[in-house]
Structures are given as C-alpha cells and as structure tokens.
Amino acid sequence: MKSTTSLVARQCLLQQWASQIRECNQRPEGMSVSEWCSQHGITKTNYYYRLRQVRKACLDSIPQDKLPLAPVKAEPQAVVAVPAALLGDTPDYNQKTPAITVSVGNISISVREDTSPSLLAMVLGVAVHVE
C-alpha cells in the first residue's frame, strides 16, 4: 500500500504533467510535439510517458459502475477529457491570494477558495506526521 505522502506526491506530478500536456496541445500551429518538447527541456518519449500516465489516472478515477460491461465501439477521439481535479490550476492560479494559511508544526499550507477538499484533507493528514 502506498503511503499518503507518495499519493500526494503522485497527485502533484500528475497535475504538473496535465498542465504540460495542455500547454503542448495549445502550441502554435505548425509546431511539432518534438519541437515543443525540445523547447521545454523534455524528451518526446518522456512527454508521451506523461501523457499515458495522466490518461491512466483519468481512467482509474472513473467509478467501476460507470464502465461498460462489454467493449463499446467508439469513434476515435483526438482529445481525451481530463478531470478538472487533475488539471489543478488555471494560468492565474498562483497569483490568487490565499483565503487562509494553515500552520502545522514547522510547515505552512496556503489554501485558496478553489482548493479541493479531498486534496486538503490528504495534505493535512500528511502534515500532522511531519516533525
């Protein structure tokens, strides 16, 4: 079983990767994925690894009762929907003023109005064990 710290770290990575994928999807017309990756200091192979991981996390987040019992023939999609919880922030997210700052031991956590309650609960659960 993964520790809560590992789960929170993984969630943060997925949010960062989802943001990079969004940026790559909004690259200038005519720019290839390879060019975009080169400009952002990641390999094309690493980009596609991150894309697979974000897609897998999205699929894993779908409740089992919502999955079809038999394979469904679907039209190919160019865009895969990513849950907003994984996308995390908006471009001006870091410029928003925290609504509250929670201090536990020697760490402080800034919370904004749009902070996910489940993410906050996980972070606070980890924070109480920090020495």
Describe what you observe in this structure.
The chain has 131 residues and is mainly α. It is built from five helices and two strands; from the N terminus they run ααααββα. It has a two-stranded antiparallel ribbon with strand order 1-2.
Please state the oligomeric state of the protein chains shown.
single chain
Query: Strand sequence of the main sheet, in spatial order?
Result: 1-2
What is the string of helix and strand elements? Answer: HHHHEEH
Helix content percent band: 40-55%
Shape, principal axes of CA atoms: globular
Number of helices: 5
Largest beta-sheet details: 2 strands, antiparallel
Strand residue percentage: 5-15%
Name the average pLDDT: 75
Number of strands: 2
State the end-to-end distance: 22 Å
Alpha-beta content class: mainly alpha
Main attributes?
131 residues; mainly alpha; two-stranded antiparallel ribbon; 5 helices; 2 strands
Topology:
Elements: H1 4-25, H2 33-39, H3 44-60, H4 84-87, E1 100-104, E2 107-111, H5 117-127
Antiparallel strand pairs: 1-2
Helix pairs in contact: 1-3
Short recap of the structure:
With 131 residues, this protein is mostly helical.
